[in-house]
From TrEMBL:
Belongs to the MoeA family. It catalyses: adenylyl-molybdopterin + molybdate = Mo-molybdopterin + AMP + H(+). GO terms for molecular function: metal ion binding; molybdopterin molybdotransferase activity. It comes from the Bacteria. Catalyzes the insertion of molybdate into adenylated molybdopterin with the concomitant release of AMP. GO terms for biological process: Mo-molybdopterin cofactor biosynthetic process. Keywords: Magnesium, Metal-binding, Molybdenum, Molybdenum cofactor biosynthesis, Transferase. Pfam families: MoCF_biosynth (PF00994), MoeA_C (PF03454), MoeA_N (PF03453). GO terms for cellular component: cytosol. It comes from Donghicola eburneus. InterPro entries: MoaB/Mog-like_dom_sf, MoaB/Mog_dom, MoCF_biosynth_CS, MoeA-like, MoeA_C_domain_IV, MoeA_C_domain_IV_sf, MoeA_linker/N, MoeA_linker/N_sf. This is Molybdopterin molybdenumtransferase. Pathway: Cofactor biosynthesis; molybdopterin biosynthesis.
Length: 693
């Protein structure tokens, strides 16, 4: 039906504004969704005019009302189009967002009986004829569609309310004039006009409020308004692409207008989130500021952290099968653990109040309480019952005494008081209460997490689809497999099997893209056909004659060659290839591994949905000596000796693959100069902490 869907979150702010409660515009199409935060209404109107002129079939959803209750229109003697014209004529706005909407409202108030209907003034200065609080008005507060929204459990605000949390009145008064002008440029306004190439409709982003909450738990840095417009744009896009959008437009004509999606909430919610594409990475996301020469490691990491975000869709899977998956929405307990108060030991249960100091003798009831076999009936005050570990405390029991501390005489149980109230019992929900968040989005699920999900009655979880990472080796000298014959000038490809196994250990879906000779055409074809989320290449990444990867990425993709102050490591080539991020690692296996561990690991973790992964290291005494110059961070192949001190590999030569295998971790030396002698504290990062298995 449409080529693109734009959703606008409007704002009546009195100054240019970005962030929360400002103007957000999300645009969804076949390639995903992206959003823009636009500081002023004038800029937003220019943006929409430009979109309208682009020639695509476009649906523009706006989050303000496009009409008033019918009785008010009748009193004013206009229809909706007449209202837009009136507002376009009387409303003024500036490039600084200075709108006269309060005066426009006050003028309308004077033409309508009573003190209102418009009310609410967020400004210091009074506006005559605009009451600050809600006046009694003879006019209805709601349009029919808003009454439907309320009946459907939504919470619309009245178009008469100009100020206060979530008020839409001011947004309508500032937005309808723009709608009038866009209509003059050829747009039509549903349901007042027929649907056309560019159709404007009123929408209600809160229809997806539960989905928005889940989305925000996955993207804690995202602004609410942004999440709302992106999700609604995506959901409408999914219906559009699946051919199920037309029924949403099928309503009775009315001058009050309608909210698109009303009575189709389930369809919209079902369209979100599994079928939707996550936001795309920007093509210029790896761009380094001009003139930057050597980038310190931390600056490069910061830049990556900013540039990237989760790029995978979400799927729902059975929690028993979720090992290794990344949780995409907080897992909320469906049941408390334990669900009911129970006994922590095998013993005898009774009411604490019936006991005192000194020897106790309580008559023992027939029967017992066991796990899975609750005691049938209540325990009278002053009596005791046999109870086993995990059994629900019967009514009348709040305390349990350990069987080892009791004697039995056939009819009674005998023990020494005093006993602590609630001794040896577990409270309901003492571990996790129903409704509590048990595991946060972004967590990688392991065996203990699966135990917790099960205990809390969580059968299904939302997880990110696995990140598919392609690995490509380049170089004329390489031969693909060690079982092939090698000529003297040839070497076996070491990087590709290393990187594939690294990715496997990190829990991603590795995709072997094979090996390419240094032939730009061949490399280009391989990149084009990769069909993966991220590509790691090795070799040919610097700027020399034979460095075909960086040349290709520069000419046909968007390459940013980062000269990172790092040893071992040469420039890291970061690029977008037709929307897919490419990490061009050095060819040298030692440098390739270090760059993969330092840069690719946290970046992939972020893109996969588990957040930026900081390496965890600890400080140990050095068992080596080294004079380190200032200017570059250095990673040494290292391992702990039997005294817990870090030994470094005997050679720093970056072609020495044996050192990688000899090592159990890396020693990280700071950017600054350092004089290391035996016993100097150094930072050691075990391979295990870098996800090497
Ligand atoms: P390059 O980055 O292409 O200039 O390669 C730097 C060094 O790493 C050269 O000695 C290459 O032969 C070597 N090299 C490149 N790729 C690999 C690979 N996949 N396996 C082993 N060594 C490689
Ligand atoms: Mg090469």
């Amino acid at each position: 039906m449409f080529d693109r869907i734009a959703i606008l979150d409007w704002s009546a702010a009195g100054t240019p504004k970005t962030g929360k409660d400002s103007i957000w515009l999300a645009i969804a199409d076949g390639s995903g969704v992206r959003s823009e935060n636009i500081p002023t209404r004038m800029q937003a109107e220019e943006r929409l005019s430009a979109l309208l002129a682009e020639g695509d079939r476009l649906l523009i959803g706006v989050d303000f009302s496009l009409s008033f209750p019918a009785a008010a229109l009748e009193r004013l003697g206009v229809d909706a189009a007449g209202l837009w014209r009136h507002l376009a004529t009387n409303h003024t706005d500036t490039a600084k967002n200075l709108s006269n909407y309060r005066h426009v409202a006050a003028e309308l108030n004077q033409r309508l009986e009573g003190d209102g209907p418009f009310w609410g003034n967020g400004a210091k200065a009074d506006t005559p004829h605009l009451p600050r609080t809600k006046p009694a008005s003879a006019l209805p507060e709601w349009r029919a569609c808003e009454e439907v929204a309320q009946a459907n459990g939504l919470n619309p605000k009245s178009c008469w309310q100009l100020a206060g949390a979530g008020a839409v009145g001011a947004q309508s008064l500032t937005g309808m004039p723009m709608v009038y002008r866009l209509r003059e440029q050829g747009a039509t306004v549903w349901p007042f006009d027929p649907i056309s190439r560019v159709t404007i409709a009123e929408v209600y982003p809160s229809i997806l409020s539960a989905e928005v909450r889940a989305h925000l738990s996955r993207h804690p840095d995202m602004v609410l308004d942004q999440a709302q417009v992106e999700l609604l744009a995506q959901a409408l896009w999914v219906l559009n692409a699946g051919g199920t959008l037309p029924p949403l437009f099928d309503v009775e004509p009315t001058k009050e207008g309608h909210i698109l999606g009303l009575n189709h909430e389930l369809a919209l919610r079902a369209a979100e989130p599994s079928a939707i594409l996550p936001p795309r990475l920007r093509n210029d996301c790896f761009a380094m500021p001009q003139g930057v020469n050597w980038v310190p490691v931390d600056a490069a990491l910061d830049k990556l952290k900013q540039a990237l975000h989760p790029i995978k869709g979400v799927e729902t899977i059975n929690s028993h099968k979720a090992q290794g998956c990344i949780l995409a929405a907080d897992a909320v307990a469906r049941r408390s653990n334990p669900p009911r108060p129970n006994s922590a030991v095998d013993g005898y249960g009774f009411a604490h109040e019936a006991t005192s100091d000194g020897p106790q003798k309580l008559p023992l009831l027939q029967g017992r309480a066991a796990a899975g076999q609750p005691f049938d009936g209540a325990v009278p005050h002053g009596a005791a019952v046999r109870i086993l570990t995990g059994a629900i405390l019967p009514d009348g029991v709040d305390t349990v005494v350990l069987e080892e501390d009791c004697a039995l005489d056939g009819a009674s149980v005998i023990f020494d008081g005093p006993v602590k109230p609630r001794a040896n019992t577990r409270k309901a929900g003492e571990d996790v209460e129903s409704g509590q968040t048990a595991i946060r989005a972004g967590h990688v699920l392991r065996a203990p997490d699966i135990a917790l999900l099960s205990a809390l009655g969580i059968a299904d979880v939302q997880v990110y689809e696995p990140l598919r990472v392609g690995v490509l080796s380049t170089g004329d000298e390489l031969i693909a497999r060690p079982d092939m014959d090698a000529l003297p000038h040839q070497i076996f490809d070491a990087n590709r099997p290393m990187l594939l196994s690294l990715l496997n250990g990190w829990g991603y879906a590795p995709v072997d893209l094979g090996h390419c000779e240094d032939d730009p055409k061949l490399i280009e074809r391989t990149l084009d056909r990769a069909n993966v989320d991220v590509i790691l290449t090795s070799g040919g990444a610097s700027a020399g004659d034979e460095d075909h990867v960086s040349h290709l990425l520069r000419t046909k993709g968007t390459l940013s060659s980062w000269r990172i102050a790092l040893k071992p490591g040469r420039p890291l080539a970061l690029a977008m290839w037709d929307g897919t991020p490419v990490f061009g690692l050095p060819g040298n296996p030692v440098a390739a591994l270090v760059c993969a561990l330092v840069f690719a690991r946290p970046a992939l973790s972020l893109m996969a949905g588990s957040g930026w992964a900081e390496p965890v290291g600890f400080t140990v005494p050095a068992a080596f000596e080294k004079h380190k110059k200032a200017g570059r961070r250095e990673y040494l192949r290292a391992r702990l000796n039997d005294q817990g001190k870090a030994e470094a590999f005997k050679s720093e030569g970056s072609g020495r693959i044996s050192g990688l295998s000899w090592a159990d971790g890396l020693v990280e030396l700071p950017d600054e100069a350092a004089e290391i002698t035996h016993g100097t504290p150094v930072r050691y990062i075990p391979y295990a902490m870098l996800g090497l298995r």
